[in-house]
Amino acid sequence: MNFDLTEEQRVMVQAVKDFATKEIAPNLKKEEFDRELVRKMGSLGLFGCAFSVGMGGSDLGFLAHSIVCEQVSSYDSGLRSLFNLQALTVPYTIMEWGNDLLRKRYVKALVTGEKLGCTCFSEPNAGSDIAAIETEVIDKGDHYLINGIKTWISNGTVADYAIVYCTFNRSLKHKGLCAIVVETDQGGWQPKEIPKLGDKSSPIAEVFIEDVVVPKENLLGEWGGGFKVAMTALDRGRISVSSGALGICQACLNASVKYAKERVQFGRLIRDYQMVKHIIADMATYTEAARLLVRWAAWLNDQGRPFTREIAIAKYFAGEAAVRAAGWAMEIHGGMGYSLDLPVEKYYRDSKLYQIGEGTANMMRLIIADDALGIKKANRARSKIPSDFRDLN
Ligand SMILES: Cc1cc2nc3c(=O)[nH]c(=O)nc-3n(C[C@H](O)[C@H](O)[C@H](O)COP(=O)(O)OP(=O)(O)OC[C@H]3O[C@@H](n4cnc5c(N)ncnc54)[C@H](O)[C@@H]3O)c2cc1C
Fold it and tell me: Is the pLDDT of residue 389 over 60?
């Protein structure tokens, strides 16, 4: 076992830190979406670790992707959300399930940040239960027609391309699902921003989809095979999400250590009080445990091995760790934790998402428990990546 980062990964970490110090940190207080910043992140190659050079990437893999997400999230968790949309759940899903035409048309533009993506699973009546999706797709012979409402869509107000999960027959449940790439520059695509607690640099929308027309080549996988597409997309997305939770843990630990070494009460630095030390010890332990779990799952993916169980464990633990770390950071900072002058209150607001998005904590527990109990094995053979996957230009 080797837990050291490679030279390439170390260089990547430093590049992200330099970028974040210069471009992210000065604007943190704004907490708003910045289109130009996304372009810069794309041109620096931050979204491209899992993609070949020809597709706008660096071929460094999912572990490198995870490390980049962790770093970005330690500055701004909202920007970490982009890594799902500009790397994993949109372009990687197109790479994995789309035809060459779709790969050429959409992947590089997303990975380089030239275009923006979004993933549309959730609906007012279908959250954890994806098989309950009601958005309807009709095969009109020479094209598809889509109607429905999606909600909680990250990048929903700004995306150029969306992967829409829809059904051709609700009574078939998961067997009726289809995954279709939609270009959003049509009148029938109407997003409406949803105000929210945290991750404010990531815009979220309810999207009203009315008579949206899609060419038939935009189907990902098979007609009725959308559930499989969704499951692989969610597994990959969880790498980014759990890495984001880890970034928050580390940020909380850094801020708490700094504050504990500066704040004096009763004539002593608060770091000298045993109860404060306990909290710091717990934060460090949860952070390192989350890091090992997240990197383990990302590494398994890089080896081409199944990792559904391991990423569920990582995502569950890292999400819990982030929420706890943010609470502990608030505690160590006392009143200053509650102040808008320090980023601790932002970590507190942002952390909660990690128990909800890309599958709630309960959903992760279900995957883990069903696997342990032999009710449903989590790790099954994965779809084979087509041989020309890395050769496209
Ligand atoms: C900031 C943010 C960004 C998001 N971005 C996107 C996005 O880009 N695209 C997208 O499609 N969605 C997105 N979502 C939606 C997210 O994926 C859903 O919120 C999540 O899947 C949970 O669905 P729900 O909110 O409908 O909760 P529900 O599914 O209604 O769950 C409510 C509660 O019931 C529990 N529960 C439900 N079923 C079970 C069960 N069988 N066993 C035990 N407990 C259960 C849940 O764990 C939860 O605690 C985002 C959400 C947020 C908050």
Answer: no
d(CA 202, CA 185): 20
358 belongs to the catalytic site: yes
Q: Of the residues 152, 201, 229, 241, which should be mutated to test ligand 1's pocket, given the most ligand atoms within 8 Å of the CB?
A: 152
pTM of structure: 0.96
- In this predicted model, what pLDDT tens digit does every residue of 1-39 receive, in sequence order? 889 999 999 999 999 999 999 999 999 999 999 999 999
The class that CATH gives domain 117-224 is mainly beta
Q: Which residue, judged by its Cα, is nearest atom 4 of ligand 1? A: 152
Average pLDDT of the residues of the chain: 95
CA angle 20, 21, 23 (to 5 degrees): 60
Q: Are the CB atoms for 367 and 380 separated by under 8 Å?
A: no
Q: Is the pLDDT confidence value at 387 over 50? A: no
Its CATH class, for the domain covering 7-111, is: mainly alpha
Residues with CB under 6 A from ligand 1: 118-122, 127-128, 152-154, 196, 199, 204, 353, 356-357, 360, 362-363, 366
